[in-house]
Amino acid sequence: MNQLKLKFSSIEAPQSFDEVTTLIYSLISTTKLAVLQTYFGDSKLWGSLRLVRDIWIAYFLYNKITDIFTIIWGYGLIGSIKRLWRAINASIFSFVMTLPPIKRKVDKELEATIEKIETSLMQNDDKLLQFPKLPEEGISKESIVEELDKLQHLKHSDWNNGRVSGAVYHGGEELLDLQSEAYHKYAVANQLHPDVFPGVRKMEAEIVSMVLDIFNAPETGCGSTTSGGTESLLLTGLAAREYGKKNKGIIKPEVIAPVTVHAGIDKACSYFGMTLHKVDLDPETYQVDISKVKRLINKNTVLLVGSAPNYPHGIIDNIEELSKLALKYNIPLHVDACLGSFIVSFLERSKVHGDRPIPKFDFRLPGVTSISCDTHKYGFAPKGSSIIMYRNSKLRECQYYISSSWTGGMYGSPTLAGSRPGALMVGCWATLVKFGKDGYEESCRRIVDATMQLKSTLKTEETLSKYLEIIGDPIASVIAFKVKESEATNINIYELGDLLNSKGWHFAALQNPAGLHFALTRLTIPVVPELIEDLISSTKEAVQKRVSNNTVTSDTAAMYGVAGSVQTSGVADRLIVGFLDTLYKV
Ligand SMILES: *Cc1c(COP(=O)(O)O)cnc(C)c1O
């Protein structure tokens, strides 16, 4: 320390301010001369080009370095190294996969799996009429109706007995009749032509207004109807990108969302050229880790997303904290209540949780700028209907498509589609006003009650509580569970799923962590006791299976094994392509 002091004191300090300025000036002029010498030594033209080149390189490097630092700051040093390692790993393995002997082997296995998918999906029958081409002459109404019945009876999952997770959000037979009548009356309606169908315009406006009301929107609240949750998410993504561009000049937009966010957000980022940062969950609550969201916020962030609740685990993110971040950094916040729809919005009113306070997730939180709600899920409207809501019309305007100079006339369209099936909207309107607030409150109470019954059984029943663990603390209509860590070697969750499947139950498979979930619908309520019984017996069987046979024999486990490892994730992608191709094979 003493030595250090001595050294400092031995430097001769300038005696006056004048001396300092002279020193600086002479430094600058010598460097400037040196720089000019390097650039303009031979000719002015070459010198200028060299200067431009170097400024460009410096700018490029500056950007790259700030990008790298933003990533390191956002994901932490270890997190960034892990990401880099994963990326390197993936590219090495995708190269290895192209080596001929390996490629041949993988191709062969893929082909076999895709064939399996085809046999299970492409249900056909000699007795069915086949139409790979238009029939030369149309066929009679009677034969068409007969054919429709036959097609409906192809072997399929038993949804009508409530044994399928989610998928069919049935509002009752009487409602189906009403919806069919609404469809019949408005079969030709198209919202693209409000002058031709003024009644449809009024109904659509009222649908948006009714849903805004149940999500406690302010006076300025507004929105539009869409074809489904995915379109609502695409639009909120698009609107956020445009809003960020218009108001903050952001040209490299980024979105921050929990890993549990619906794939529709991935799709929005992929379609609209945005970088998506997926944030890990708090290991206790399974809500998005707020501190990690905060670290990832930067000048390019155009949107934060939370779910109420999310699809995989049925957990409502900590929207109150997300709202605070959104306000603090002045960034729009979207709440995906597509699945929660008429369940979360009625939790409070239905008092289904007694005195337990319900966390806030709607427009009452000042940071929330948009919410998506699927009327075609727990709203029981016909499939093909969802609502995207905004806090104000400045935000909504950013989702509009406007073309005033089109040769076909001045054109404007509020959503992704051009023409839209008005009949579906009418079906939605009829459903909402048929149920009313009381109807939805009642349906919320019954569905959530049944869900809580399943939840408490999972927690207390001897076998279930020994082997399985509920993911987080779900309070809506979805329960997800995984194998307890201590029992990991005694039972495989996908094997359990397959066993349940053989008993007619369709649980959804989850990954990272491996789990199963069930979304309860009105159809499930009467079969909850059976569900519990089969869950207990299947758990016992799954344990037995591991005792007698040490290898996992489940198809689902095999498939998720493939998808889960970095080495083979490219293969999983090809499997999905194969599945999608199968959809269009005649
Ligand atoms: C269902 C769902 C969506 C939207 O899905 P669509 O199939 O397009 O209606 C979005 N978010 C969550 C959480 C969902 O469960």
From TrEMBL:
<dbReference type="GO" id="GO:0030170">
    <property type="term" value="F:pyridoxal phosphate binding"/>
</dbReference>
<comment type="similarity">
    <text>Belongs to the group II decarboxylase family. Sphingosine-1-phosphate lyase subfamily.</text>
</comment>
<keyword id="KW-0472">Membrane</keyword>
<dbReference type="GO" id="GO:0097038">
    <property type="term" value="C:perinuclear endoplasmic reticulum"/>
</dbReference>
<dbReference type="InterPro" id="IPR002129">
    <property type="entry name" value="PyrdxlP-dep_de-COase"/>
</dbReference>
<feature type="modified residue" description="N6-(pyridoxal phosphate)lysine">
    <location>
        <position position="377"/>
    </location>
</feature>
<comment type="pathway">
    <text>Lipid metabolism; sphingolipid metabolism.</text>
</comment>
<dbReference type="GO" id="GO:0019722">
    <property type="term" value="P:calcium-mediated signaling"/>
</dbReference>
<dbReference type="GO" id="GO:0030149">
    <property type="term" value="P:sphingolipid catabolic process"/>
</dbReference>
<dbReference type="GO" id="GO:0032541">
    <property type="term" value="C:cortical endoplasmic reticulum"/>
</dbReference>
<dbReference type="InterPro" id="IPR050477">
    <property type="entry name" value="GrpII_AminoAcid_Decarb"/>
</dbReference>
<dbReference type="InterPro" id="IPR015421">
    <property type="entry name" value="PyrdxlP-dep_Trfase_major"/>
</dbReference>
<dbReference type="InterPro" id="IPR015424">
    <property type="entry name" value="PyrdxlP-dep_Trfase"/>
</dbReference>
<comment type="pathway">
    <text>Sphingolipid metabolism.</text>
</comment>
<dbReference type="InterPro" id="IPR015422">
    <property type="entry name" value="PyrdxlP-dep_Trfase_small"/>
</dbReference>
<keyword id="KW-0746">Sphingolipid metabolism</keyword>
<protein>
    <recommendedName>
        <fullName>sphinganine-1-phosphate aldolase</fullName>
        <ecNumber>4.1.2.27</ecNumber>
    </recommendedName>
</protein>
<keyword id="KW-0456">Lyase</keyword>
<keyword id="KW-0443">Lipid metabolism</keyword>
<dbReference type="GO" id="GO:0009267">
    <property type="term" value="P:cellular response to starvation"/>
</dbReference>
<dbReference type="GO" id="GO:0019752">
    <property type="term" value="P:carboxylic acid metabolic process"/>
</dbReference>
<dbReference type="GO" id="GO:0008117">
    <property type="term" value="F:sphinganine-1-phosphate aldolase activity"/>
</dbReference>
<dbReference type="Pfam" id="PF00282">
    <property type="entry name" value="Pyridoxal_deC"/>
</dbReference>
<keyword id="KW-0663">Pyridoxal phosphate</keyword>
<keyword id="KW-0812">Transmembrane</keyword>
<dbReference type="GO" id="GO:0042802">
    <property type="term" value="F:identical protein binding"/>
</dbReference>
<dbReference type="GO" id="GO:0005789">
    <property type="term" value="C:endoplasmic reticulum membrane"/>
</dbReference>
<keyword id="KW-0256">Endoplasmic reticulum</keyword>
<keyword id="KW-1133">Transmembrane helix</keyword>
